[in-house]
Amino acid sequence: MYKRGGFAEQTHFIGIPVSIELEELVAECREHMSCVYGCHSGYGTPPHITLIPPFALADGLESRDLLEAAYSAAEECKAQNLLPLQVEVCGFGCFSERTLFANVKDSDAWQNLHSLFCKKISSALPASVKKSGKSFYPHLTIANRDIPTGAMDEALKHFSQLNLNESFTADSIAIYMRNSTGGWKEWQRIGC
Q1: pTM > 0.85
Q2: How many Cβ atoms from other residues are within 10 Å of residue 110's Cβ?
Q3: Do 177 and 67 touch, CB atoms closer than 8 A?
Q4: Is the pLDDT of residue 131 over 90?
């Protein structure tokens, strides 16, 4: 297990890759937030919808153990017709003043996908991935953590003018791995 400052370094997370059109939109939105508000936090992460947030692989586990567990979880999701999943992205929202995001329309399908995937991965890798007590809210992060105080209302007003209403079919799960610069890269993609 990698450690930084005595704490386990988060090495992986699992998410749904988005369409090329949404990747481009997120890049444009991030550029706006950077130029206007000086935001940069999280920009080393490819656009995605998080299923399992960053975690550290426990001692004795390797990335291939995670890959095997993710393949198994994806197969179970396909068997239960949870994947592929039609994704609707409509408008923008925020978590307080901390996170600005493109809103992913929530549904029973999203909740069931998240629940099953987390259950399978946390069962396969219990020392690494713990079931979270937090509610799952699918979203596509634009900016987080370094948004200046008081800027959120103005940013939301700006982005509302885009009239965002996109959809795509989520037909894969991706495992992201921390890279040498501290950002994240897509490591493996599992077709569904």
Answers
A1: yes
A2: 21
A3: no
A4: no
